[in-house]
Amino acid sequence: MDRTPTQQLAAPGEGSATLPQGLIGHVPQHVAVIMDGNGRWANARGLPRTEGHRAGELALMDTVAGAVEAGVKYISMYAFSTENWKRSPAEVSFLMGYSRDVIRKHTDRLNDWGVRVRWVGRRPRLWKSVLKELRTAEEKTKHNTKTELLLCINYGGRAEIADAARDLAQEVADGKRKASSIREADIASHLYAADVPDVDLLIRTSGESRISNFLLWQLAYAELDFVPVPWPEFGREELWERLQAFQDRDRRFGGAIDAVGEDQAPTS
Ligand code: IPE
Ligand code: IPE
Ligand code: MG
Known about the structure:
It contains 7 helices and 6 strands, in the order E-H-H-E-H-E-H-E-H-H-E-E-H. By secondary structure, it is an alpha/beta fold. The chain has a domain of 181 residues: Undecaprenyl pyrophosphate synthetase (3-Layer(aba) Sandwich), CATH 3.40.1180.10. It has a 6-stranded parallel β-sheet with strand order 3-4-2-1-5-6, with helices on both faces.
């Protein structure tokens, strides 16, 4: 379906599509989305890449509406990676400016929907004006409890783990903890949004089957779902379809399927 940001955006529960009954009370807690394929979507239509990013705005808002309606507690959206600075200066400027404008334009709407907005990423290089809008959105929406929207802007999974390692090293240097006592939980508690649970379901649009440095720590046991549609054609109905498919996944977290009654640990 071709869509543009000027088309009508429906609030959660007010779209023309009906939430599948089977999803009620049975959705993953944390969904992460790699919004990919804007450039190819635009190129296929003879448009500049930036028009693809513009078309992605409605996809983003419609997907968030779908997450709210379905009762997804956390939705992480990858909007700009620490590697995306490698793109042309014109595209980088567009993406920074457009992110700022999109956040400003939709903060009140997200607030009305009961969404708490949080920024996840690194400070260096991020435009001050983008950070300012993110902080305003965080402040305005901080009491909302329905769904948390984690906007990953200037985010990199390796950078996040390196930042956590640096903080821990500093604590050791300051005599606040012993290096020998560092556990997985200590790394986890030093991540950017440390209170957010691990990702249950990762969706990447546009047919690429890679992670591209997204939430490396939090994806350890996530179910991965690579879908062929380009990001501008994604929305609440496509999200619900993926949430339904997730219900058929058999998650084991390293355990055995028939472990019932076999919880005796081997002795040697
Ligand atoms: C995703 O679409 C948006 C961002 C990375 C910001 P792309 O711009 O990567 O589009 P493709 O992958 O080149 O089609
Ligand atoms: C990942 O997409 C980053 C975002 C969607 C923000 P990219 O398009 O940057 O990833 P690669 O370069 O194809 O791996
Ligand atoms: Mg891409």
